[in-house]
Amino acid sequence: MDSPRILITGNLGYVGPGVVRQLRQAFPDAELIGFDLGLFAHCLTGPAPLPEVCLDRQVFGDVRHLPSGLLTGVNVVVHLAAISNDPMGTAYEDVTMAVNHDASVHLARVAKAHGARAFVFASSCSVYGLGGDEQKSEDAALNPLTAYARSKVATERDLTALADDKFRVTCLRFATACGWSERLRLDLVLNDFVASAVATGELTILSDGTPWRPLIHVRDMARAVLWATHRPLGGPFLALNVGSNAWNYRVRELAEAVARNRPDTKVKISPTGAPDRRSYRVDFDLFRQLAPEHQPLMSLDATIAELTSKLLEMWFIDPDFRTSRLMRLRVLKALVEQGDLTPDLTWAPLPRPAPASPRPAVPVLA
Hints:
The chain is α/β, with parallel strands linked by helices. Helices cover 32% and strands 19% of the residues. The protein is globular, with a radius of gyration of 22 Å.
């Protein structure tokens, strides 16, 4: 791909920094444009340089209201922007559908009309919902249980009609994200377990521990995004499970792995814990066949060790981290409560300054 112009939406989130860095390394002469509302731009962890230094341009805006000219000359769109997990989707259900579905499909239409040749959509394995013990391949029935998952299913469905030989659409059904990022999230199962172990020496499984979760490190997500920008196989439209068969774990196995890496950690199962209906094992064979050079490289133990090390480096000792800015829903609610965000998650207008009082006339002395 020769010097493309690539638009990355949602680049100021958890996954974005790794994606931007991966694209810059792969395409040093590309023009990389970030587009983000900026809700989580301040949620930085660590003193490293801003991830956005890899961009040519950062545009602030809402995917529901695309600025004129944003897509001009863009060859590839990497669409990460979303209300990005089940708790946020439950709290803001209408906004979730407006952002994750309506705005996503509109963005793809505008990109195609402007001559883009590839659209990469960050979907989710949560579309399988209540999946049981059988591994789910791409042709398995979808059973979304939450607003977030339903929004992903609806978007995949409507993107299908836009794909053709000149506009390739790739829906990457990512396993549950985990691992270190410059904009770390702790509202993800493995990250939560590691943070709890580091801060308190114990972790509590809120369900009965039996649900299945496939996982993937954010850096391996970025490798998959890179592949999708120029994939040679898979046809005009592709919905693809992205992860590794080796990374299908029950929740209790993740907790046990954290305890192995921090031997003094106590693992508790909530006495009121009930089976979590969101349980799915996923088959990633097709991803391995289509993208053999872009397979996940990180292991579970290495991910836990990295998270632990980075948290210790930042002197992470907050036992109440679930009320901190490292939890995305908490950030949104705080911004709404402060009046910075409207209930539909747009920035509130800044109050106009009061008009200046006229200055009293200064008498002129004769």
